[in-house]
Amino acid sequence: MDITTVKLHKGTKTALDQIRSERESYDEVIRKLIERTRNKNLKKELVEGYQKIGKEELDILHEWEAASREL
Predict the structure, then answer these.
(1) Are 29 and 19 in contact (CB under 8 A)?
(2) SS3 28
């Protein structure tokens, strides 16, 4: 595994210290934050996708309702 050094402002390190458990590495904390961000973005994308699909389904339903009334 390659390792690199990242410079942080003291305030950023302090913030990481506040959310980090005693035995958790900074790498683990940062990975956890990245995962939360990805999940949040994925959830947003899923909601938008389902809303679009729902609108399309609703449009189809209205078309069928109109066609059913004609019969």
Answers:
(1) yes
(2) helix
Residue 54 and residue 38: Cα distance in Å, rounded? 24
The answer as to whether 30 is a domain residue is: yes
* Residue 16 near residue 29 (C-beta atoms within 8 A): yes
Q: Is residue 52 part of a domain?
A: yes
Q: CA triplet 33, 35, 36: central angle to 5 degrees?
A: 65
Tell me the pLDDT tens digit for each residue of 11-62.
999 999 999 998 999 999 999 999 989 888 888 888 898 888 888 888 888 7
Does a structural domain hold residue 41?
A: yes
Query: What total of structural domains would you count in the chain?
Result: 1
CB 20 within 8 A of CB 12: no
Give the HSE-up count for residue 65: Cα atoms under 13 Å, Cβ half-sphere.
6
